[in-house]
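no rush on this but wanted to send it before i forget. theres a chain ive been looking at and ive put its sequence and its fold in token form underneath. i want to understand how the tokens follow from the sequence so walk me through it. thanks a lot i owe you, the record is right below:
>
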Amino acid sequence: MTTYKEGNTVRLEATFKNAAGTLTDPGTVSLKTEDQAGVVNTYTWAGGGVTRASVGVFYRDVVTIPGKFEYWFAGATGVTAADGAEFSVTPALV
């Protein structure tokens, strides 16, 4: 599991490809995040907090707070795929 220091900006990113391996935009992209308190937030593309960097590549930047953080991207309509990960954040030394 990757570890970051508190206050860093972390880019959560997903890449979507079709069955032939070509980068492809799904019709919908959603991102769910869960923080250490168990609070779940949902973001979407387009207009809902997920940004399209290029064909098939989507991201959201988050500022870290101490604890464990999990995220999950899902695409549907045209390209159905999902992927996620988790990371931890350690407190910054003052």
